[in-house]
């Protein structure tokens, strides 16, 4: 949860709350949200509701994503949440989830980027969005991202255009569960990477080979706990610091070195790693398998790390709709 107020071309956070609740735990196996996952989530939502009331928030948007989209008892859970916490959540479509994640990354888009791949590795799904900015003036590209359309049409001259979008029903939790019975750590990692690639072959840019000229105008931006964890590990952080991670640039070599170290540690070593923490250590390799797959399919020298996503995207979208960013967004 983020509570914020407009501040120039960005926003200032008033209060925030985040808790790993693993709502989709077991979903891959049972097709239902578990009692434990529901209980943990309701407790967290209760804290959010208290903060919203305490700050007298007037403009609110509350969303649910892949776990609730897929679960047979997803709508039942939302009814339960509304009754017990007073929070009315809406289940959003994958396209809207992707749009909001992309909007949150707008300030990180480089002026020279003609083609941008934004990906969001979630717990139950991974969204990939390929954006064509070749018709947009360099100084207007961040603003064009905020006003992005998801209909795939080119629209007016100067608009950003979605080349293709895909929502793969595999995230760190669901991919981990699918291969949980594979005992060998390296073999499980390889299988997860192979299986994820099989699921993105229908994504139009999958068959696109980036030429040397394309590489100059191509940018990859990753937003998820996986990429921020890899970024923090590269920096050697024992305690996570968003200010040091959000917006940083990771070279492909640095990413490969971090993933190789995680593999060498093995499951037990990752559990003991102070920088990972117990919750993240169990799921980091499924996320790393997705990340490594993307870098293999679309080779690039570096990737921008975004510690932002749906929450920031919703704030940008709501504030933009209310005219809060009339002077344009800062390129920071």
What does the model show?
- It is a single chain.
- This protein has 332 residues and is α/β, with parallel strands linked by helices.
- The protein has two domains: 2-92, 2-Layer Sandwich (Nucleotidyltransferase, domain 5), CATH 3.30.420; 95-311, Exopolyphosphatase. Domain 2 (Nucleotidyltransferase, domain 5).
- The protein contains 14 helices and ten strands.
- It has helices spanning 27-30, 35-54, 66-70, 74-85, 94-104, 141-146, 172-178, 185-198, 212-216, 225-235, 242-245, 252-272, 277-297, 310-321, and strands at residues 2-7, 10-16, 63-64, 90-91, 115-121, 126-132, 161-168, 218-224, 249-251, 302-306.
- The strands form three sheets. Strands 7-6-5-8-10-9 form a six-stranded mixed β-sheet, with helices on both faces. Strands 1-2 form a two-stranded antiparallel ribbon. A two-stranded parallel ribbon has the order 3-4.
- The chain is globular, with a radius of gyration of 19 Å.
- The model is unreliable at 328-332 (pLDDT under 50).
What secondary-structure arrangement, pairings included, does this model have?
Layout lengths: L1 E6 L2 E7 L10 H4 L4 H20 L8 E2 L1 H5 L3 H12 L4 E2 L2 H11 L10 E7 L4 E7 L8 H6 L14 E8 L3 H7 L6 H14 L13 H5 L1 E7 H11 L6 H4 L3 E3 H21 L4 H21 L4 E5 L3 H12 L11
Parallel strand pairs: 3-4, 5-8, 8-10
Antiparallel strand pairs: 1-2, 5-6, 6-7, 9-10
Helix pairs in contact: 2-4, 5-14, 7-13, 8-13, 10-12, 10-13, 12-13
Number of helices: 14
Q: Remind me, CATH topology of the largest domain?
A: Nucleotidyltransferase, domain 5
Give the H and E element order. EEHHEHHEHEEHEHHHEHHEHHEH
Please give the domain count: 2
How far is it from the N-terminal to the C-terminal residue, by CA? 22 Å
Q: Supply the CATH architecture of the largest domain.
A: 2-Layer Sandwich
Instruction: Indicate the overall shape.
Output: globular
Which class of secondary structure composition applies to the elements? alpha/beta
- Major sheet: 6 strands, mixed
Low-confidence stretches: 328-332
Mean of the pLDDT scores?
88
- Give a count of the beta strands, DSSP E runs of length 2 or more: 10
Proportion of beta-strand residues: 15-25%
CATH class of the largest domain: Alpha Beta
Strand order of the largest sheet: 7-6-5-8-10-9
Fourth-tier CATH superfamily name of the largest domain: Exopolyphosphatase. Domain 2
Rg over alpha carbons? 19 Å
């Amino acid at each position: 949860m983020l509570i914020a107020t407009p501040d120039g071309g960005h926003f200032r956070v008033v209060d925030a709350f985040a808790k790993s609740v693993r709502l989709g735990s077991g979903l891959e196996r049972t097709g239902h949200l578990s009692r434990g996952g529901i209980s943990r989530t309701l407790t967290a939502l209760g804290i959010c509701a208290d903060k919203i009331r305490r700050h007298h928030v007037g403009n609110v948007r509350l969303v649910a994503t892949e776990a609730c989209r897929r679960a047979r008892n997803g709508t039942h859970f939302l009814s339960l949440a509304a009754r017990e916490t007073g929070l009315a959540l809406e289940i959003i479509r994958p396209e809207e989830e992707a749009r909001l994640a992309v909007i949150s990354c707008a300030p990180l888009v480089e002026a020279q980027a003609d083609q941008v791949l934004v990906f969001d590795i979630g717990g139950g799904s991974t969204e990939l969005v390929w954006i064509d900015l070749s018709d947009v003036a360099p100084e207007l590209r961040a603003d064009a991202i905020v006003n992005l359309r998801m209909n795939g049409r080119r629209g007016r001259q100067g608009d950003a255009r979605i080349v293709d979008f895909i929502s793969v029903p595999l995230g760190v939790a669901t991919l981990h569960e699918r291969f949980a019975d594979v005992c060998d750590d390296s073999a499980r990692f390889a299988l997860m990477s192979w299986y994820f690639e099989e699921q993105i072959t229908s994504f139009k840019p999958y068959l696109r080979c980036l030429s040397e000229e394309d590489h100059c105008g191509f940018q990859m931006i990753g937003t998820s706990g996986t990429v921020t964890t890899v970024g923090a590990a590269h920096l050697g952080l024992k305690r996570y610091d968003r200010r040091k991670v959000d917006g940083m640039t990771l070279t492909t070599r640095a990413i490969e070195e971090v993933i190789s170290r995680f593999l060498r540690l093995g499951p037990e070593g990752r559990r003991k790693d102070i920088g990972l923490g117990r919750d993240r250590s169990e799921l980091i390799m499924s996320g790393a398998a997705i990340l490594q797959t993307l870098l293999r399919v679309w080779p690039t020298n570096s990737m921008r790390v975004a510690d932002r996503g749906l929450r920031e995207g919703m704030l940008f979208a709501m504030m933009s709709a209310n005219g809060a960013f009339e002077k344009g967004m800062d390129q920071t």
